Request: fold
Amino acid sequence: MRKPDREFKKSFVKIIALDEVDSTNAYALRKAEKGAREITVIWARRQTQGRGRLGRRWVSPEGGGLYVSFLLRPSSRRVRPLLGFVAALAVIRALKSMVSVRLKWPNDLLVGEKKIGGILLETQSHSRNMPFVVLGIGINTGCDSTEMPPGATSLYLEGKKDYTHREILYKIIHEFTALYRGLKPAGIRGMIREVESYMDTLSRDIKILKGNRWMKAHALCLDEAGAILVRTDDGECHKMFPQEVTHLR
Ligand code: BT5
Reply:
């Protein structure tokens, strides 16, 4: 495992800063297996094997983006499905003064129709004693359009240059820790309502997977467990989780 270039603390968060890593998520998973505590934040200038969901690649050149992973050990299983929302909202709030970011459920962060960031939640199911979750966040900062896949944008392409990666990182950590600590029954409803206000998925037609068949449905709202409630054409309501929903183009 690569040695951290720097380690420092910000309140109860331990930040490990790396010049280069395969993937901040992979690094955090390895740390978690060795017993690292929450909240450990891994931050890298570049990733050689940045990853998205389902083995997809995340383009991660130096100066092109913020690549960060949060190692968490949530005390309750109930909060796990909500962690992606915590990350999305933390990013939305942190970037608010620069760009207006919307969430395309479950993990795409968009400016207009273009993807400026993504979220990747990973865990190890066999670690029953000290369960953990790694929450990776990638945000395109300095990338230009030749470096990224079509349909992507960055702060640079949105005309924003007046920031440092460290400033953005600290803002995200600040928002994230406040939201994470607030994941108690009394706080969840408010957070979900705020997430809904930034979601592009609601009040529109989407496709859902029922059994092994995709069908059209209308997205209604989120529930407090992190599921999306949808209504199918026959008037029935269903609760869906991320892998069962896709947007209609
Ligand atoms: C995601 O996956 O959107 C989750 C991305 C999470 C990246 C962070 S960076 C820190 C941490 N460490 C990691 O190794 N990963 C996390 P997904 O929805 O599967 O989107 C992947 C798809 O987005 C790719 O197949 C490309 O089409 C596209 N893509 C790749 N790089 C991109 C980029 N930099 N900006 C926008 N789109 C990109």
Notes: Residues 23-25, 47, 50-53, 56-59, 65, 67-69, 107, 115, 118-120, 136-138, 140, 148-149, 152 surround biotinyl-5-AMP (CB under 6 Å). The longest helix spans residues 165-181.
